[in-house]
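Now for a sample.
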Amino acid sequence: MRIDIITLFPELLESPFQHSIMKRAREKGLLEVNLFNPRDKYSIGKHHKMDDYQYGGGAGLVMLPEPLANCLDDFLAERDYDEVIFMTPDGERYNQGIANHLSMKGNIIILCGHYKGIDERIREKYITREISVGDFVLSGGELGAAILVDSIGRLLPGVLNDETSALFDSFQDDLLAPPVYTRPSDFRGMKVPEILLSGNTKAIDDWRHEQALERTKKRRPDLYEKL
């Protein structure tokens, strides 16, 4: 999979992809992540302008349409992209289902807005999907883009050492994941549930499902009601 991220602040995204699972995914050649600053090539004038005041007044600068359009035109002329995603608070709320869907794509562009956002005409002409990572506002789309890449990348075949691991993550079956334990079996008087030490795979699977249901009912009643 190839993900090209267009951002005015690529330095904000350098670290998240250089460690742990994302690092291994890139080293294995399973995930290619490219950061591109449109200011380097497409900014306007000697002052490398990328934004301006919004029509109608109001606080906050808006990213100019011309540099973004020229940048996207060049990207789209170079290869076919399955999605051109814009990170925005008013997009569809991101969830595991969307991550699963995007992980089956080949080439994706993620456009990170900044300041007050981007000119609406860019959204209308180029963007195929708008995504929000929650009902709050960030300084820009970079942190949201990092969330997308991480959640998508770990689902790619061969990225995780045990590919079945992702199948039991929270939200994969609209349930929260059950509690997990490791050694020692007795830690400061707190013991691992006996069922997990029994070796009875069927009984353990049933226990985990019951625990997932109970945890979802308690912590996310909105999800539980949909079951």
About this structure: The chain has a mean pLDDT of 94. Strands lie at 2-6, 32-36, 51-53, 61-63, 83-93, 107-112, 129-132, 186-187, 190-191. DSSP finds eight helices and nine strands in the chain.
